[in-house]
Amino acid sequence: xxxxxxxxxxxxxxxxxxxxxxxxxxxxxxxxxxxxxxxxxxxxxxxxxxxxxxxxxxxxxxxxxxxxxxxxxxxxxxxxxxxxxxxxxxxxxxxxxxxxxxxxxxxxxxxxxxxxxxxxxxxxxxxxxxxxxxxxxxxxxxxxxxxxxxxxxxxxxxxxxxxxxxxxxxxxxxxxxxxxxxxxxxxxxxxxxxxxxxxxxxxxxxxxxxxxxxxxxxxxxxxxxxxxxxxxxxxxxxxxxxxxxxxxxxxxxxxxxxxxxxxxxxxxxxxxxxxxxxxxxxxxxxxxxxxxxxxxxxxxxxxxxxxxxxxxxxxxxx
Length: 318
Hints:
Elements: E1 2-5, E2 13-21, E3 27-34, E4 43-50, E5 58-63, E6 70-78, E7 81-88, E8 92-98, E9 109-111, E10 121-124, E11 127-128, E12 130-132, E13 135-143, E14 155-162, E15 169-170, E16 185-189, E17 195-199, E18 207-213, E19 221-230, E20 237-241, E21 244-250, E22 257-264, E23 272-279, E24 283-288, E25 291-297, E26 304-311
């Protein structure tokens, strides 16, 4: 299902999708609307909403860039409150919230984090954050390049965490001696209540890297590359439900194609797979009651963003 078509009159690309499902079953989708084909374009961020299981969508709000780059939208579902984060010019982090199931959002407010004096580029997510043991946690990547302040490399990764959505702290850096230019990551809660992180990287193996932590912001262990997860250096997302983890990414080392969901209860030592689409790109995934909800790029320049719902899928570990 085409959810956002690029007509060319106002936007040249709609990219960087995110999707969550609220406690009541409402779907919220959000993404960048770019006025030119650049990460540093004049970019708006749009939030849309569905109350009929994704059959129809209505626009909730559009945050306008007004000549600036609004980037990397991330949403959290924290019981009956939605928290929404995004950045301006890969530098200034903003937050707002919804207390009416996503019908409206508060005016964005700037968040001050102790890392923004040391890095030229900061980006959360993208996709969605998680709530674990009462804390909201989101992956973040940071780049410092003295010659080009807009460069996305060299980079490092960590997580941001918060108890209330207003005050955020930076966790430990992950794999600084192993990972080459890591960037967009995804988090999920495993069956033993640990945090699994899936890491985009440029180590040259074209494989996802993974690590685990009991807290989600320190004590990361078992950092490794997984041959079963080829990656054309793309955003890959994860979600979880009742100990089952779902990972979505392009199933290729050379091209953004063959979008595939992998399902596991043992940190992907074993898994089942579901094919989603051949043309592909960035994607995000939500799950509820044995149904997968997927928002993904299919053709960024000539098409738009697509939504797909998969019901009653087979599971390796019922």
